[in-house]
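call fold(seq) -> tokens
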Amino acid sequence: MMLLKQGRQWKSMCRGLILGTLLTSCMILVYSYAILPLHINLQEIPVPYSCSYHPLKSKNFYQKNDNLSAVVQGHSCSPIQDIMFMKTHKTASSTILNILFRFGEKHRLKFAFPNGRNDFYYPSPFERTQVQDYHPGMCFNIICNHMRFNYDEVRKLLPADTVYVTILRDPAYLFESSFHYFGSVIPLTWKITADDTLAEFLRDPWHYYDPSGYNAHYLKNLLFFDFGYDNNMNPENISVREYIENIDKRFHFVMILEYFDESLILLKDILCWDMADILYFKLNARKDSIVSRLSGDLYSKATEWNKIDSKLYQYFNASFWRKVEAYGWDRMRKDVAELRQRNNEMRAICIDGGQAVDADAIQESSMRPWQPIGEQSILGYNLKKNIHKKYVQLCRKMLTPEIQYLSELGVNLWITKLWGFARAFLKW
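ret:
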């Protein structure tokens, strides 16, 4: 009986894969005929020093170190508007995108958005030609969608005063989240028959893992891969340290998910923003992510399996706390308390029931977040009725999921939407 059930599951999965492959092929064919070839003369047309209405007074006004705030103490500042946010996977980065979208709208900034979908053709390395309506010399304020980072291409797209920001997460917990979220699109995991697939994989990773496997990057050192490096390097290779230091040179600030509110306070200080600019609700959260399934032994195995990411995390976790110390412990506690109080006030104003709900309990389709294949595991929110007119627009924007917000900002998401229709048809 068990074998018959498994056989039906495999038959159903194979049928879906065949249909999905055919549909994807058709989409690519339609895209190739529907969209005129992009012929861009990529001669180096200089991007202006700043795309901001209030550029920094000099290139050295932002001081990137652990001992001073971004704005030289004792000097007034204007909000920084030229920002590169490197959106890593499974790190609450969708919540940060919502903050950036709202800030960009408020100040009428120009975003560099992907063309046709909600990422820059990840996992392919980023290229400027992937930007919607791009032409050399264009001035963009913010770029923040998923990409595989390619500094040489990114820096030619953005002005010289751009502040580079990203976020990291404890690699063991990131691996757990990635393993479950992307498992249905990683064929390497399909042959795991144990009830606890994660524990079985970590028992003997190389029995299941193949570096050349489709979507294999989701299973090992995903952070390092997102930054554009080889996630299958020997962790003891001397180049690993060199690459981590390169990331440190290129990014002005690296946030830490486990200290999200503290990270936002430091980000606010670096960007010279107001507290109102960083208010947030947690978006794109899994309903079963409150308590980790990783025991002490599994945590150690996951950490060792993602050893390069662990080195990356340890390096920037240390620099993060040096920044907190420079900011001031008492000042940090006070500001974090204020942020949480104001978030709670907005929660009471905006959210029906005061908390996130399962996907099938979300009343408005415009508030339903994108779901992983075969699951309805991502939580969302219901907007309160009869919100005071002062807060209606802000509440809706704070609660709007990433895909819907991108559409509101004018992003052409036809590939993402067509894929969504296909998934609904195939009941994925």
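Confidence is low (pLDDT under 50) at residues 1-6, 27-40, 57-61, 70-74.
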